[in-house]
Amino acid sequence: PSDFGVYAIIGSIGSVFLVFSDIGLAAAVVQKKKIISNLEIRTSFTVQLLLGLVIFLIINIFANAFAVFFKIETHTNLIRLYSLVFLLSPFRLIPLAVLERNLRYMNLFFVEVVSIICGSIITVILAFFGFGVSSFIWGILVNYLISAVILLPQQSWFRGIYFDIKSFLLLARFGFNYQINVFLGLLYGPLTILYLGKAVGSENLGYFQFAASIYVFPLAFSEIISRVSFPVGSRIQSDRVLLKNLLEKTISLTSITTLPLVAIGLVAIKPFLHYIYTDRWLPTLPAIYLGIVQIGIISYTGVFSQILAAKGRSEVIRNVAVIWVLLTWISAPILIFYFNFVGLSLTNLLVAISGVIFYFKLKKYVDFSFSNNVLVYAIGAIFMAVVFVILQYMFADTFILLVISTGLSLTSYIIFLLLFNKNNLVQYFMLIKSVF
């Protein structure tokens, strides 16, 4: 657990500085309604590269002070090693933004999958050979490096650094407002992780980080769906009918993919922990359960915020983020004091619930139906969870039968949808196929 905790501290320090390495220009590249020029893209890249260089130097200068403050003095060099991310980030972030803007999702998907797989392989190999915490950081660096190597040769705009003040100001108009939201996210995100590490120590922080790495899994599909909805929504932001159709299809796709993962996670996580990670990680169960419920909520509120951002309503997201900051720092110290690392999971759940504000705000701009695009999938997910519980009760508790029970439960969910929602299921399958 302590290794996870040290990595969480270093990663959170990096996340804090990551906010200042991008002033929203990548998001502005995606969101801009009119045609974007190569000068604007090159300017965005140049600004990010300069900011990354400055942050790289700052982290290296103050690495020892960070290590002393968080009581990880033996890992000072790892903080410096992590700072290389900021030199690689512009070569990855801006090209990805261009792909996203141009709706080239097959290319984007390929780059991200290949880089994640390569980074994960490096992490596992180094961990196997006893590199400890550094294996995580080398994995991240390889991830960024592979992304840059694949992306840059495909970018026709890349002709070295260039700065055009007019292009910068045009993009910064949206980018600064967007980045304010990201900065506020820093206050209820990475800084709370650092506070937790300071308050309860690296071992308990490691338990929380482990729980977070588990319960975030159901969010994978909804993040991809939201990522598609932002650039598409930006293109059709002035057409209410098209935007309504996009939003309702996005909600349905989120329901189809996320709800079954949430349901199976709630009923299957305990035996999976037992067999895969051993019982030493069972203390993380309360945090995992709370986190899975939190993910179920933010998979939808994330969609709402993306559509609001696509319409250029970044001030709504900013105002909600202010509420989240206040809610986090009022509740987190109290809940962490009484419930240790589980207190931060409780705080995150409260913040997630308050995200329902996005629903009511979005309703003012788009007249969409939520329940019609959720109910049948929610019932199917509950049915699937019941099937899993029955199978677990009927058969012996072994890992092979656990895997079989999970597979049969997911199959029962698909059969349920084919029986009660076949037409929509086929339609969404064809839609996903056309996008990728």
UniProtKB/TrEMBL annotation:
<feature type="transmembrane region" description="Helical">
    <location>
        <begin position="78"/>
        <end position="99"/>
    </location>
</feature>
<feature type="transmembrane region" description="Helical">
    <location>
        <begin position="174"/>
        <end position="195"/>
    </location>
</feature>
<keyword id="KW-0812">Transmembrane</keyword>
<dbReference type="Pfam" id="PF13440">
    <property type="entry name" value="Polysacc_synt_3"/>
</dbReference>
<feature type="transmembrane region" description="Helical">
    <location>
        <begin position="6"/>
        <end position="30"/>
    </location>
</feature>
<keyword id="KW-1003">Cell membrane</keyword>
<feature type="transmembrane region" description="Helical">
    <location>
        <begin position="135"/>
        <end position="153"/>
    </location>
</feature>
<keyword id="KW-0472">Membrane</keyword>
<feature type="transmembrane region" description="Helical">
    <location>
        <begin position="345"/>
        <end position="362"/>
    </location>
</feature>
<feature type="transmembrane region" description="Helical">
    <location>
        <begin position="321"/>
        <end position="339"/>
    </location>
</feature>
<dbReference type="InterPro" id="IPR050833">
    <property type="entry name" value="Poly_Biosynth_Transport"/>
</dbReference>
<feature type="transmembrane region" description="Helical">
    <location>
        <begin position="399"/>
        <end position="420"/>
    </location>
</feature>
<protein>
    <recommendedName>
        <fullName>Polysaccharide biosynthesis protein C-terminal domain-containing protein</fullName>
    </recommendedName>
</protein>
<comment type="similarity">
    <text>Belongs to the polysaccharide synthase family.</text>
</comment>
<feature type="transmembrane region" description="Helical">
    <location>
        <begin position="50"/>
        <end position="72"/>
    </location>
</feature>
<dbReference type="GO" id="GO:0005886">
    <property type="term" value="C:plasma membrane"/>
</dbReference>
<feature type="transmembrane region" description="Helical">
    <location>
        <begin position="106"/>
        <end position="129"/>
    </location>
</feature>
<feature type="transmembrane region" description="Helical">
    <location>
        <begin position="207"/>
        <end position="230"/>
    </location>
</feature>
<keyword id="KW-1133">Transmembrane helix</keyword>
<feature type="transmembrane region" description="Helical">
    <location>
        <begin position="251"/>
        <end position="276"/>
    </location>
</feature>
<feature type="transmembrane region" description="Helical">
    <location>
        <begin position="374"/>
        <end position="393"/>
    </location>
</feature>
<feature type="transmembrane region" description="Helical">
    <location>
        <begin position="288"/>
        <end position="309"/>
    </location>
</feature>
